[in-house]
Amino acid sequence: MELGPHAAFIWASYAAVAIVLLALAAWLLWDGRRQRQLLEDLEARGVRRRPQR
Amino acid sequence: MTTDAATQTWTQRLANPTRFMALSGQILPWLTIAAIAVVLYGLYLTFFVAPPDYQQGETVKIMFIHVPSAWLAMMGYLMIAISSFGLLVFRHPLADVSAKSAAPIGAAFTLLALITGSLWGKPMWGTYWVWDARLTSVLILFFLYLGLMALRSSLEDETLAAKQTAVLGLAGVVILPIIKFSVDWWNTLHQPASVVKIDGPAIHSSILVPLVVNAVGFSLLFFALHMKAMRNEVLRRRVKALRMAEVEQAARGRDTSSATAG
Q: Could you report the predicted ipTM of this complex, rounded to two decimals?
């Protein structure tokens, strides 16, 4: 693939998109896993939203 | 609320966070697969099919990610504005979850529009940045996103934070027409609209088709990221509610034990 005299600018653009979007996706996956873990820990300790009848 | 399911509108039915979690849990994997597939196809078209532009050569490849990023930067804000309206007017329980979740994603696409635009500007215009109306208004949009996030995180009370952020979100929507028409209202270095125009696109189909495929792919990606962020936020609020319940339980336990002791 020949991208001409400005190839560096083209690659830099695509690299920026890849880095930002992958970082965003990774953060969302990590955050989701962490919230699930916190929720499981609370439920394992027997914490309920409303007092049990 | 004990509204009969048959009399509920679909937005009311979706308003239930538990139902949202069940539904989004089923949709999200497929949405993610579709987004990745279309983005990969778009990249294939960009690098192996689309011809170089007759004036700007291969740097037109930057357009294939710059333009979708810029569109999604604006769509993300539109989503925040609609969600804010939904919160302030209809008190939709998921509206604030949607508005909060869209902010960092919209900010990311705005940043990408600015970075890719800058990297396209240097070889084509001879400069990374000019303070023309289009570039400046998009920079303001980026700061608006940051402002919304900063305002929210500065307020401890979640209900108050939701309302105040929604008001700022709605007031800020005025930036969208300014961005869109900045190239017509002012003399800008940035080119005027060439895709979304009343008399149709002014781009040859060999360039337009890959652009549209990329726009669809990145939009699907935006929706997938937003849905994931909303799911995380619903979980975060459940964690918070359970922690409050735990504190209350502990306080009640102390009260009863001190009552029996005394």
A: 0.91
Cα–Cα nearest to B112, from A26, A25, A16: A16
Write a three-state SS string for B182-247: HHHHCCCCCCCCCCCCCCCCCCCHHHHHHHHHHHHHHHHHHHHHHHHHHHHHHHHHHHHHHHHHHH
pLDDT tens digits, B87-129? 999 988 899 999 999 999 999 999 999 999 999 999 999 999 9
* B108–chain A Cβ distance below 8 A for any pair: yes
How many other CB atoms are found less than 10 A from the CB of residue B176? 17
Q: Do B119 and A9 touch (CB under 8 A)?
A: yes
Locate tokens 């215009």: which residue? B125
Q: Give the closest of B47, B58, B225 to A25, CB-based.
A: B225
Angle between helices B95-125 and B205-261 (to 10 degrees): 140
Taking the Cβ of residue B32 and every Cβ of chain A, the question of whether any pair is shorter than 8 Å is answered with no
Secondary structure (DSSP) of chain A: ----TTHHHHHHHHHHHHHHHHHHHHHHHHHHHHHHHHHHHHHHTT--SS---
Which pTM was predicted? 0.91
Instruction: Flag if B225 and A28 touch (Cβ within 8 Å).
Output: yes
CA distance A10 to chain B (A): 6
